[in-house]
Amino acid sequence: MKFLRDRLFLANSLNHLGVDILNAQKTMILTFMVGILGIGNTEIGLYSTVMQVVAALMQPLFGLLTDRKQTYWLAPFGLLWMVTFYAIGAYLASWWTIWLLIIGSLGSAMFHPVGTERATTSARRLTVAGVTTASATFFLFGQLGFSIGPILGGQLLDSFGLLGIWGLCLLALPAIGFSFYQNYKFRNLHAADVADASGAQKQERLHKDDIFVKGRWVLAAFAILIILRTMPAHIGMVFLPKLMADQGMSAGWQGFIAAFFMGGAAVGGVLGGMLADRVGYRTALLWTMSVAVPFIWLYPVMSGIWLPITIFIAGATVGASHPMLVVMAQSLFPKSMAMASGLVLGFIFAGGSLGGAIGGYFADVYDLAWVMQQFVWGLVIAIVLVWVVVKTQSENG
């Protein structure tokens, strides 16, 4: 993996780690504040949804801005933005905290389209085979952030209350500095230039006609596929801490158990990217999403040693499709990859936010574990859509 030795790729990947360590604190903080503010499942789902929607709506705009103005400094600035508002919110420990977390979500929107484009462009610049593997490795850092974030946040919340979040903010500062320097150093490296300079074989790997069937309806079907696939993935991120809290677990244990889901997603993302580079997107998506179905259904009702095992496998199998969907979307706009990244990540965030809102509402009416199980049917429909919109040819032709 030659791209791991590239400083621009590494800088944005470490930036990704910091962003998603903080993103992972949202539901931990909301669960922690149940006792302070007296909020329930509906409010947890609603506030989480607002944070996701803010990020989802703004990502394509930040991506388009980067494609037109080359504002690559938005990647490290996004993490700095999050650090600032999370630190202030943790200090206030009131209703203002929720509003500041919502404003802080703009930092995630700033980073993701720019960081994704920078990582993919720096990998393609090195003329390495397997762009999906490079993308998956970039997302691995984010998934690791979501994985270790609940563990770190849970322990800090147990020990220091909300002020413990300051420790995570301080840890992010070196990554911000490194990322600012590298993105400034490579400010003249543009996705369009790399696409023009790439050979014919490289162009084929990201050509939409080799991935999607033809038809104007394909974009809409692909967007629905993304949303339905994302809902069961996001519902675990939002409500696993609450599910564990309902079982009497401390914040530290909540974070430990939740980490298995995102840890699985981290491993699954890399393996899914490697699989897609070998057998093509259609086969890789069908296999990983189909295997995810039984484990997404089982993990909310598991206990004992089977709980972390099923959570890990559920996270790995549903998370495997994430880098594939991003690179597939980039193939639609090969010379505007920041905008394309923002669009697909926006749909992923929107799908997650919709799942959080729906899940939160029904979890106050029905059993939370049962509600979490029902999102598997969206994944089943997404599998059918893969059959419809994705070609059978492998990515390598």
What does this structure look like?
The protein has 18 helices and no strands. The chain has helices at 7-23, 25-32, 34-37, 41-69, 74-92, 95-125, 131-160, 165-185, 191-197, 200-205, 218-246, 251-279, 281-298, 306-319, 322-332, 337-363, 368-374, 376-389. The chain is globular, with a radius of gyration of 20 Å. Mean pLDDT is 84; it is low at 197-205.
Features:
single chain; mainly alpha; 81% helix; 0% strand
Topology (elements, then pairings):
Elements: H1 7-23, H2 25-32, H3 34-37, H4 41-69, H5 74-92, H6 95-125, H7 131-160, H8 165-185, H9 191-197, H10 200-205, H11 218-246, H12 251-279, H13 281-298, H14 306-319, H15 322-332, H16 337-363, H17 368-374, H18 376-389
Name the CATH superfamily assignment: MFS general substrate transporter like domains
* Alpha plus pi helix count: 18
- Beta fraction of the residues? under 5%
CATH topology: Growth Hormone, Chain: A
Offer a quick outline of the entry.
With 397 residues, the chain is an all-alpha fold. It has helices at 7-23, 25-32, 34-37, 41-69, 74-92, 95-125, 131-160, 165-185, 191-197, 200-205, 218-246, 251-279, 281-298, 306-319, 322-332, 337-363, 368-374, 376-389. It has a single domain (2-389), classed as MFS general substrate transporter like domains (Growth Hormone, Chain: A, Up-down Bundle).
